[in-house]
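WARN retry 2 of 3 for item q-0093 after timeout on previous attempt; input resubmitted unchanged.
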Amino acid sequence: MSVWDQLIGQEAVVGQLQRAAREERPHHAWLFTGPPGSGRSNAALAFAAALLCEREDPRERGCGHCRACRTVLASSHADLTHFVTENPQITIEEARELVVRAQDKPSVGRRRVIVVEDADRMAERTSNVMLKAIEEPPPGTVWLLCAPSPMDVLVTIRSRCRPATLKVPAVADVAELLVRRHAVGRRRAEESARLAQSHVGIATRLALYDDARTRRQEVVSLPLALGGVPDAVRAADRLHRIAVEESRADAEARNEEERKQLLVALGAPESGRVPPAIRGALNRLEADQKRRSRRIQTDTLDRFLIDLTTFYRDVLTLQLRTGSGLVNEHLGQELADHAANTTPERTLHRIDAISRTRERIRTNVSAQLAFEAMAVSLL
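OK item q-0093 returned
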Protein backbone atom coordinates (compact mmCIF):
# COMPACT_ATOMS: atom_id res chain seq x y z
CA MET A 1 0.00 0.00 0.00
CA SER A 2 1.48 3.38 -1.00
CA VAL A 3 1.53 6.40 1.30
CA TRP A 4 -1.18 8.00 -0.85
CA ASP A 5 -3.79 5.32 -0.13
CA GLN A 6 -4.66 6.86 3.24
CA LEU A 7 -5.72 10.15 1.59
CA ILE A 8 -9.25 9.10 0.76
CA GLY A 9 -11.31 11.39 -1.44
CA GLN A 10 -8.34 13.68 -2.14
CA GLU A 11 -7.52 12.76 -5.74
CA ALA A 12 -6.70 16.31 -6.86
CA VAL A 13 -4.29 16.95 -3.98
CA VAL A 14 -2.67 13.52 -4.37
CA GLY A 15 -1.99 14.25 -8.04
CA GLN A 16 -0.51 17.64 -7.16
CA LEU A 17 1.79 16.18 -4.49
CA GLN A 18 2.87 13.23 -6.64
CA ARG A 19 3.96 15.59 -9.40
CA ALA A 20 5.87 17.73 -6.91
CA ALA A 21 7.61 14.69 -5.37
CA ARG A 22 8.99 13.75 -8.79
CA GLU A 23 10.71 17.11 -9.19
CA GLU A 24 14.41 17.34 -8.50
CA ARG A 25 13.90 20.58 -6.58
CA PRO A 26 10.31 20.80 -5.27
CA HIS A 27 8.98 24.04 -3.83
CA HIS A 28 10.59 24.78 -0.45
CA ALA A 29 7.39 25.54 1.55
CA TRP A 30 3.85 24.15 1.46
CA LEU A 31 0.67 25.02 3.34
CA PHE A 32 -1.82 22.16 3.83
CA THR A 33 -5.29 23.47 4.63
CA GLY A 34 -8.72 21.94 5.03
CA PRO A 35 -11.51 21.58 7.59
CA PRO A 36 -11.16 19.26 10.60
CA GLY A 37 -11.18 15.66 9.43
CA SER A 38 -9.82 16.40 5.96
CA GLY A 39 -6.48 14.79 6.85
CA ARG A 40 -4.07 17.73 6.71
CA SER A 41 -1.35 16.09 8.81
CA ASN A 42 -1.76 12.76 7.00
CA ALA A 43 -1.31 14.52 3.66
CA ALA A 44 1.77 16.35 4.94
CA LEU A 45 3.35 13.11 6.21
CA ALA A 46 2.52 11.29 2.97
CA PHE A 47 4.21 14.07 1.00
CA ALA A 48 7.19 13.98 3.39
CA ALA A 49 7.48 10.23 2.81
CA ALA A 50 7.43 10.75 -0.96
CA LEU A 51 10.11 13.46 -0.70
CA LEU A 52 12.35 11.10 1.31
CA CYS A 53 11.40 7.86 -0.47
CA GLU A 54 14.35 5.63 -1.42
CA ARG A 55 12.94 4.61 -4.82
CA GLU A 56 15.12 5.82 -7.70
CA ASP A 57 12.23 5.99 -10.16
CA PRO A 58 10.47 9.34 -9.46
CA ARG A 59 7.15 7.79 -10.49
CA GLU A 60 7.37 5.35 -7.57
CA ARG A 61 8.09 7.93 -4.86
CA GLY A 62 5.84 7.38 -1.86
CA CYS A 63 5.89 3.60 -2.31
CA GLY A 64 5.04 2.98 1.35
CA HIS A 65 7.32 -0.08 1.50
CA CYS A 66 10.89 1.23 1.71
CA ARG A 67 12.50 2.02 5.05
CA ALA A 68 12.28 5.77 4.47
CA CYS A 69 8.54 5.70 3.83
CA ARG A 70 7.87 3.51 6.86
CA THR A 71 9.95 5.62 9.23
CA VAL A 72 8.45 8.89 7.98
CA LEU A 73 4.92 7.61 8.57
CA ALA A 74 6.07 6.57 12.06
CA SER A 75 7.61 10.06 12.55
CA SER A 76 11.00 8.49 13.28
CA HIS A 77 13.01 9.28 10.12
CA ALA A 78 16.34 10.98 10.86
CA ASP A 79 15.67 13.76 8.32
CA LEU A 80 12.09 14.42 9.41
CA THR A 81 11.03 16.85 12.11
CA HIS A 82 7.36 16.27 12.90
CA PHE A 83 6.38 19.06 15.28
CA VAL A 84 3.16 19.14 17.30
CA THR A 85 2.99 21.73 20.07
CA GLU A 86 1.68 20.73 23.46
CA ASN A 87 1.05 24.35 24.41
CA PRO A 88 -2.08 26.38 23.66
CA GLN A 89 0.08 28.27 21.16
CA ILE A 90 3.42 27.61 19.46
CA THR A 91 5.95 29.43 21.61
CA ILE A 92 8.82 31.57 20.37
CA GLU A 93 11.26 29.07 21.92
CA GLU A 94 9.69 26.22 19.94
CA ALA A 95 9.82 28.30 16.75
CA ARG A 96 13.50 29.08 17.27
CA GLU A 97 14.26 25.40 17.77
CA LEU A 98 12.53 24.59 14.47
CA VAL A 99 14.57 27.28 12.71
CA VAL A 100 17.78 25.72 14.07
CA ARG A 101 16.74 22.23 12.94
CA ALA A 102 15.92 23.53 9.48
CA GLN A 103 19.56 24.55 9.06
CA ASP A 104 20.84 20.98 9.52
CA LYS A 105 21.93 19.11 6.44
CA PRO A 106 20.17 15.83 5.60
CA SER A 107 21.85 12.93 7.37
CA VAL A 108 20.56 9.88 5.49
CA GLY A 109 18.21 11.12 2.77
CA ARG A 110 18.20 13.64 -0.03
CA ARG A 111 16.26 16.29 1.92
CA ARG A 112 15.35 17.55 5.36
CA VAL A 113 11.58 17.93 5.89
CA ILE A 114 9.94 19.98 8.64
CA VAL A 115 6.24 19.20 9.27
CA VAL A 116 4.48 21.73 11.52
CA GLU A 117 0.98 20.82 12.66
CA ASP A 118 -1.36 23.53 13.99
CA ALA A 119 0.51 26.35 12.25
CA ASP A 120 -2.58 28.43 12.99
CA ARG A 121 -1.45 28.44 16.64
CA MET A 122 1.41 30.82 15.84
CA ALA A 123 1.05 34.39 17.06
CA GLU A 124 2.43 37.16 14.85
CA ARG A 125 5.69 37.43 16.80
CA THR A 126 6.23 33.68 16.53
CA SER A 127 5.49 33.71 12.80
CA ASN A 128 8.05 36.46 12.30
CA VAL A 129 10.70 34.31 14.01
CA MET A 130 10.14 31.58 11.40
CA LEU A 131 9.55 33.83 8.39
CA LYS A 132 13.15 34.09 7.15
CA ALA A 133 13.76 30.34 7.55
CA ILE A 134 10.59 29.53 5.56
CA GLU A 135 11.27 32.16 2.92
CA GLU A 136 14.89 31.15 2.27
CA PRO A 137 15.61 27.71 3.75
CA PRO A 138 18.92 25.96 3.09
CA PRO A 139 19.07 23.84 -0.08
CA GLY A 140 17.31 20.55 0.55
CA THR A 141 15.03 21.75 3.36
CA VAL A 142 11.27 21.65 2.76
CA TRP A 143 8.68 23.14 5.16
CA LEU A 144 5.19 21.57 5.37
CA LEU A 145 2.76 23.65 7.44
CA CYS A 146 -0.78 22.54 8.39
CA ALA A 147 -3.71 24.82 9.27
CA PRO A 148 -7.51 24.78 8.90
CA SER A 149 -7.55 27.73 6.51
CA PRO A 150 -5.02 29.98 4.71
CA MET A 151 -6.54 32.90 6.62
CA ASP A 152 -5.40 31.28 9.89
CA VAL A 153 -1.76 31.83 8.92
CA LEU A 154 -0.01 35.19 8.76
CA VAL A 155 -0.10 36.55 5.20
CA THR A 156 3.69 36.86 5.08
CA ILE A 157 3.97 33.13 5.80
CA ARG A 158 1.26 31.86 3.44
CA SER A 159 2.53 34.02 0.57
CA ARG A 160 5.78 32.01 0.69
CA CYS A 161 3.98 28.66 0.63
CA ARG A 162 2.46 26.64 -2.18
CA PRO A 163 -1.13 25.71 -1.22
CA ALA A 164 -2.47 22.15 -0.94
CA THR A 165 -6.19 22.39 -0.20
CA LEU A 166 -7.99 19.32 1.11
CA LYS A 167 -11.71 18.65 1.45
CA VAL A 168 -13.73 16.54 3.86
CA PRO A 169 -14.05 13.01 2.40
CA ALA A 170 -17.42 11.41 1.78
CA VAL A 171 -19.01 9.34 4.54
CA ALA A 172 -18.92 6.25 2.31
CA ASP A 173 -15.16 6.67 1.74
CA VAL A 174 -14.45 6.96 5.48
CA ALA A 175 -16.62 3.91 6.19
CA GLU A 176 -14.75 1.93 3.56
CA LEU A 177 -11.44 2.92 5.17
CA LEU A 178 -12.65 1.70 8.59
CA VAL A 179 -13.73 -1.61 7.12
CA ARG A 180 -10.46 -2.09 5.25
CA ARG A 181 -8.04 -0.85 7.91
CA HIS A 182 -9.71 -1.97 11.15
CA ALA A 183 -12.04 -4.78 10.03
CA VAL A 184 -15.03 -2.89 11.45
CA GLY A 185 -18.48 -4.17 10.51
CA ARG A 186 -20.04 -2.30 7.60
CA ARG A 187 -23.01 -0.96 9.54
CA ARG A 188 -20.92 0.23 12.47
CA ALA A 189 -18.39 1.79 10.09
CA GLU A 190 -21.06 3.75 8.24
CA GLU A 191 -22.68 4.94 11.47
CA SER A 192 -19.32 5.99 12.95
CA ALA A 193 -18.36 7.88 9.80
CA ARG A 194 -21.70 9.70 9.79
CA LEU A 195 -21.56 10.61 13.49
CA ALA A 196 -17.98 11.88 13.03
CA GLN A 197 -19.03 13.94 9.99
CA SER A 198 -16.31 12.19 7.98
CA HIS A 199 -13.51 13.06 10.43
CA VAL A 200 -11.29 9.97 10.05
CA GLY A 201 -9.71 10.18 13.50
CA ILE A 202 -12.99 10.63 15.36
CA ALA A 203 -14.73 8.01 13.21
CA THR A 204 -11.99 5.53 14.09
CA ARG A 205 -12.40 6.21 17.80
CA LEU A 206 -16.19 5.83 17.61
CA ALA A 207 -15.85 2.61 15.65
CA LEU A 208 -13.34 1.00 18.00
CA TYR A 209 -14.28 2.25 21.48
CA ASP A 210 -17.73 1.93 23.03
CA ASP A 211 -16.96 4.48 25.75
CA ALA A 212 -16.36 7.12 23.07
CA ARG A 213 -19.78 6.40 21.58
CA THR A 214 -21.41 6.54 25.02
CA ARG A 215 -19.76 9.88 25.78
CA ARG A 216 -20.86 11.35 22.48
CA GLN A 217 -24.43 10.14 23.06
CA GLU A 218 -24.47 11.92 26.41
CA VAL A 219 -23.29 15.17 24.81
CA VAL A 220 -25.80 15.23 21.92
CA SER A 221 -28.63 14.31 24.29
CA LEU A 222 -27.97 17.35 26.49
CA PRO A 223 -30.73 19.51 24.86
CA LEU A 224 -33.29 16.81 25.68
CA ALA A 225 -32.55 17.15 29.43
CA LEU A 226 -32.85 20.94 29.68
CA GLY A 227 -36.02 21.50 31.66
CA GLY A 228 -34.85 24.68 33.39
CA VAL A 229 -31.85 26.62 34.66
CA PRO A 230 -30.88 24.07 37.36
CA ASP A 231 -30.90 21.28 34.75
CA ALA A 232 -28.76 23.39 32.42
CA VAL A 233 -26.17 24.15 35.09
CA ARG A 234 -25.97 20.50 36.19
CA ALA A 235 -25.60 19.27 32.60
CA ALA A 236 -22.87 21.83 31.85
CA ASP A 237 -20.98 20.94 35.02
CA ARG A 238 -21.11 17.25 34.17
CA LEU A 239 -19.69 17.79 30.66
CA HIS A 240 -16.94 19.98 32.08
CA ARG A 241 -16.11 17.34 34.71
CA ILE A 242 -15.93 14.60 32.07
CA ALA A 243 -13.46 16.69 30.04
CA VAL A 244 -11.32 17.40 33.10
CA GLU A 245 -11.25 13.72 34.11
CA GLU A 246 -10.42 12.63 30.57
CA SER A 247 -7.54 15.09 30.23
CA ARG A 248 -6.23 14.18 33.69
CA ALA A 249 -6.28 10.46 32.95
CA ASP A 250 -4.49 11.06 29.67
CA ALA A 251 -1.81 13.18 31.31
CA GLU A 252 -1.03 11.56 34.68
CA ALA A 253 0.81 8.43 33.51
CA ARG A 254 2.70 10.39 30.86
CA ASN A 255 3.67 13.15 33.32
CA GLU A 256 5.15 10.72 35.83
CA GLU A 257 7.16 8.90 33.15
CA GLU A 258 8.53 12.21 31.84
CA ARG A 259 9.53 13.21 35.37
CA LYS A 260 11.39 9.93 35.94
CA GLN A 261 13.21 10.24 32.62
CA LEU A 262 14.26 13.82 33.37
CA LEU A 263 15.61 12.88 36.81
CA VAL A 264 17.63 10.03 35.30
CA ALA A 265 18.97 12.26 32.52
CA LEU A 266 20.05 14.92 35.06
CA GLY A 267 21.66 12.37 37.39
CA ALA A 268 19.36 13.06 40.33
CA PRO A 269 19.60 10.77 43.40
CA GLU A 270 17.07 7.93 43.55
CA SER A 271 15.75 9.13 46.90
CA GLY A 272 16.01 12.12 49.16
CA ARG A 273 15.83 15.81 48.42
CA VAL A 274 16.15 17.01 44.84
CA PRO A 275 19.19 19.33 44.39
CA PRO A 276 18.33 23.01 43.67
CA ALA A 277 19.98 22.87 40.23
CA ILE A 278 17.64 20.06 39.20
CA ARG A 279 14.59 21.64 40.86
CA GLY A 280 14.58 24.40 38.22
CA ALA A 281 14.39 21.87 35.39
CA LEU A 282 11.58 20.02 37.19
CA ASN A 283 9.64 23.26 37.63
CA ARG A 284 9.91 23.97 33.90
CA LEU A 285 8.74 20.45 33.08
CA GLU A 286 5.75 20.76 35.42
CA ALA A 287 4.81 24.11 33.85
CA ASP A 288 4.92 22.51 30.38
CA GLN A 289 2.81 19.61 31.61
CA LYS A 290 0.17 21.96 33.03
CA ARG A 291 -0.06 23.79 29.69
CA ARG A 292 -0.39 20.49 27.86
CA SER A 293 -3.12 19.33 30.24
CA ARG A 294 -5.03 22.56 29.63
CA ARG A 295 -4.78 22.08 25.88
CA ILE A 296 -6.05 18.48 26.11
CA GLN A 297 -8.95 19.68 28.25
CA THR A 298 -9.75 22.52 25.84
CA ASP A 299 -9.62 20.21 22.83
CA THR A 300 -11.92 17.72 24.58
CA LEU A 301 -14.45 20.46 25.41
CA ASP A 302 -14.25 21.72 21.84
CA ARG A 303 -15.03 18.23 20.55
CA PHE A 304 -18.05 18.10 22.86
CA LEU A 305 -19.29 21.41 21.43
CA ILE A 306 -18.88 20.19 17.86
CA ASP A 307 -20.94 17.10 18.70
CA LEU A 308 -23.57 19.28 20.40
CA THR A 309 -23.79 21.47 17.31
CA THR A 310 -24.82 18.45 15.23
CA PHE A 311 -28.04 18.17 17.29
CA TYR A 312 -29.13 21.67 16.34
CA ARG A 313 -27.85 21.23 12.80
CA ASP A 314 -30.24 18.29 12.46
CA VAL A 315 -33.07 20.28 14.05
CA LEU A 316 -32.53 23.11 11.56
CA THR A 317 -32.43 20.61 8.70
CA LEU A 318 -35.89 19.36 9.71
CA GLN A 319 -37.27 22.85 10.25
CA LEU A 320 -36.12 24.10 6.85
CA ARG A 321 -36.99 20.80 5.14
CA THR A 322 -33.71 20.78 3.21
CA GLY A 323 -33.85 17.03 2.60
CA SER A 324 -30.28 16.58 3.83
CA GLY A 325 -29.46 13.48 5.82
CA LEU A 326 -29.38 13.67 9.61
CA VAL A 327 -26.09 13.19 11.45
CA ASN A 328 -27.91 11.80 14.50
CA GLU A 329 -30.36 9.50 12.76
CA HIS A 330 -30.78 7.44 15.94
CA LEU A 331 -32.48 10.47 17.56
CA GLY A 332 -34.95 10.89 14.72
CA GLN A 333 -38.15 11.21 16.80
CA GLU A 334 -36.54 13.41 19.47
CA LEU A 335 -35.17 15.72 16.77
CA ALA A 336 -38.57 15.94 15.09
CA ASP A 337 -40.28 16.82 18.39
CA HIS A 338 -37.66 19.46 19.17
CA ALA A 339 -37.96 20.96 15.67
CA ALA A 340 -41.75 21.20 16.01
CA ASN A 341 -41.56 23.04 19.34
CA THR A 342 -39.21 25.85 18.34
CA THR A 343 -38.37 28.08 15.37
CA PRO A 344 -35.46 28.15 12.90
CA GLU A 345 -34.49 31.56 14.28
CA ARG A 346 -34.22 30.13 17.79
CA THR A 347 -32.22 27.16 16.53
CA LEU A 348 -29.75 29.49 14.80
CA HIS A 349 -29.47 31.48 18.03
CA ARG A 350 -28.52 28.29 19.87
CA ILE A 351 -25.93 27.33 17.24
CA ASP A 352 -24.41 30.81 17.59
CA ALA A 353 -24.27 30.37 21.38
CA ILE A 354 -22.29 27.14 20.96
CA SER A 355 -19.96 28.82 18.45
CA ARG A 356 -19.27 31.69 20.90
CA THR A 357 -18.49 29.18 23.62
CA ARG A 358 -15.94 27.46 21.37
CA GLU A 359 -14.19 30.81 20.99
CA ARG A 360 -14.35 31.63 24.71
CA ILE A 361 -12.85 28.39 26.00
CA ARG A 362 -9.68 29.10 24.00
CA THR A 363 -9.16 32.30 25.96
CA ASN A 364 -8.50 32.73 29.68
CA VAL A 365 -12.16 32.57 30.73
CA SER A 366 -13.35 29.81 33.01
CA ALA A 367 -14.44 26.92 30.79
CA GLN A 368 -16.93 25.78 33.44
CA LEU A 369 -18.62 29.20 33.58
CA ALA A 370 -18.62 29.42 29.77
CA PHE A 371 -20.35 26.02 29.57
CA GLU A 372 -22.91 27.02 32.19
CA ALA A 373 -23.73 30.26 30.36
CA MET A 374 -24.10 28.34 27.09
CA ALA A 375 -26.36 25.70 28.60
CA VAL A 376 -28.67 28.36 30.03
CA SER A 377 -28.83 30.09 26.63
CA LEU A 378 -29.98 26.80 25.07
CA LEU A 379 -33.20 26.79 27.12
